[in-house]
Amino acid sequence: MTDLRKLSGAGTPYWTICREERNLAAILYHLLLCGENLQRFLDVVGYQAPLSSTESAVYFEYAHLRDLWSSLGGTIKGKPDAGEANERKRKAIIELLGPSAGDQLTSCTVEEFNAYFGAVPKPSTWCIQSPSVWSLPLYVGSFPDPAELLRVTKFKWSFNAKPDIVVHTDADHALCIEAKLESGEGSYPTSAAEKTIFAQRGLPRVSQTELQEYLMSELLGVETEFLFLLPKVTTHATNHRMVTWATAFEALDLEGQPSFLRDWVRGHVHAQSPEAQCGAPKSRVTLDFRARVAELEHGFAAGYTFLVALADNRIDDFRLGTARNAHLYYQGDFYAYLKPDESAIEMHSTFNGRIWDGATDKHQLLFGMPLDGLLSSLGGLEAGWTETLSDGVILRDGTPPEFFDRLLDLIGHVRP
Fold it and tell me: Model's pTM, two decimal places?
């Protein structure tokens, strides 16, 4: 038996190729709940409202309006609260919409009220149904005025809208976050039938953030600012602030998080950083490589720390260029080919495929006497944490952190 993973040659964990925006948004949501990360995030995105010690909260796929409606009660047939709940719901809809048929809707039966708004699959006879089940093709005839039709339809859409992440700094102030990775901002209507009706009535499309502004400010009464999280800041026409995923994630403390999550986040930070976008000389690290490095964390801690520091550009003048494995560069020139593998790192003198444009192959300045002398001085062969290969060496768990410090110092000082 075979499967698509084997056929495609994708032997790496799913997170290395995951393109799901909601998954990345869920990771951000999780991190915002850890330690001081929420305040760090608000600071870096420039949201100034102070966090209330009793009312601040963070929500993923925010469905406040839907749940507020449910809290009004009257959702179970035969319960004594149905009549009172229906009156509250009827009053709320009429006051918020101000329909031209307000007098009629105030006095009609529950079934007639639901039918007026085209409730599906059929109008209930005993409870005022949620606007989320109103059908535009069924209620369009009730609203000849285009402006009123648009108002009612935005109201209906709002009950199905769920902003990706909402931060309430207190009950009356919030930051609404739209997380984008590959998709652009959505708009309404979405179905073919609704689009046809809007075209016939000459109604404008409603952007995702326009609907969210209506939801948050007019329907919930929450003073709200809006933020787009994007791979890179664009010329997207919006009055709302835009922040890159790299900027957001770099502000957060990842201490104590699972290794896959840290490496996933670091991969997005690098791939979406301004330096990577403009081609500045930073490490070019794939998620595939980070997944292989993550396997070293418990089997070769010193090697893991070394490669993560290089991948994250924390060592001046040293960079990595990776696919599945990595080329090690110093000041733009090639010195070694590194292959991490669970509890070992192979160091080869010969590069794989090609090196960066403009780079010079300077492996001969490291391999041979310079590297052999370093390994000998630390007793690597005798201690068993290294062995020689035809074109390099293998480093295993037990390699002292001092070796990696001295290796970088050696590369930085060798001369032709």
Answer: 0.67
Amino acid type, 249: F
- Spatial neighbors of 113 by CB under 8 A, at least 6 apart, are 90, 105, 128
Which candidate, 24, 13, 20, 19, places its Cα nearest to that of 293? Answer: 13
389-397 average pLDDT score: 95
Enter the DSSP assignment of 241: E
Q: Do 231 and 244 form a contact (C-beta atoms < 8 A)?
A: yes
pLDDT bucket at 280, cuts 50 / 70 / 90: very low
Rounded CA gap, 110 and 394, in Å? 77
Please tell me the distance from the alpha carbon of residue 47 to that of residue 43, in angstroms, as a whole number: 6
CA dist 45 and 288 (Å) reads 29
Summarize the confidence of residues 207-228 as an average pLDDT.
Answer: 95
CB neighbours of residue 122 within 10 Å: 11
CA distances for 390 relative to 277, 336, 341, 349, 383, angstroms: 38, 14, 18, 9, 20
pLDDT digits (tens, 9 = 90+) for 129-171: 999 999 999 999 999 999 999 999 999 999 999 999 999 999 9
Rounded Cα distance between 115 and 125, Å, is 10
Burial class (CB in 10 A: 0-12, 13-18, 19+), 80: exposed
Question: Phi, psi at residue 75, to the nearest 5°?
Answer: -100, -5
Cα-Cα-Cα-Cα torsion 186, 187, 191, 194, nearest 10 degrees, comes to 170
Task: Give per-residue burial for 141-178: e unless 16+ CB within 10 Å, then b.
Answer: ebbeeeebbbbbbbbbbbbebebbbbbbbbeebbbbbb
Nearest to 266, CA basis, from 335, 320, 227? 320
* pLDDT band with cut points at 50, 70 and 90 for residue 270: low
Closest CA to 167 of 89, 50, 313: 50
Task: State pLDDT tens for residues 6-50.
Answer: 777 767 788 888 888 899 999 999 999 999 999 999 998 889 899
What ranges in 159-300 are assigned the alpha helix state H? Answer: 192-201, 208-213, 245-250, 259-271, 274-278, 287-294
d(CA 239, CA 254): 31
Q: Residue 33 class from Cβ within 10 Å (0-12 exposed, 13-18 middle, 19+ buried)?
A: exposed
**C-alpha dihedral over 289, 249, 316, 351, to 10 degrees?**
10
What is the average per-residue pLDDT within 186-197? 93
Residues 293-305, buried b or exposed e (16+ Cβ, 10 A)? bbbbbeebebbbe
35's tokens: 């330690």
